[in-house]
Amino acid sequence: MIKRLNFMAYRNSGIDGLVAVEAWIAKSFDPKLLELVKVRVSQMNGCAHCLHMHRQDALKLGETDDRLLLLNAWRESQLFTTRERAALVWAEALTEITKSHAPDDIYEEAHANFSDDEFLALSIGVAMINAWNRLAIGFRLQHPADHKRAAA
After folding, report:
1. Mean pLDDT for back-to-back runs of 10 residues, the chain (152 residues)
2. Cβ count within 10 A of residue 108
3. What is the residue range of 71's domain?
4. Which CATH number does the domain housing residue 69 bear?
């Protein structure tokens, strides 16, 4: 994979705006649950760089390897709370918006577990990780292991 524009090193008001939104979300929503959502969405989108980064961030916040390993099969596991399940089902619906169109039953299930402010922050968080995934994949942001392999 050939790396393209290093958008992470490129500073302009667009990138600064995305970073500012991330700072707002970090103050507005449960950081550990948000990292879980970011890992799940990054799995769905196939973003190796974001998977690596958000897995590391989740571990730093006390997430476990077992839960991260089972995240792709969260529906089959008893390791996830009702609130986490609500966030994950909503994140999946928004990530697959062209297929799901965010059905009413999923909206109601998810919204019932969060205040209006939390639900909005979660939804913006899902939109943001989808945006970052698209930028990282589109610009071929490399996974750290790829950097090591290229240097060897």
Report:
1. 75 92 97 98 96 97 97 97 98 97 97 98 98 94 67 59
2. 10
3. 13-151
4. 1.20.1290.10
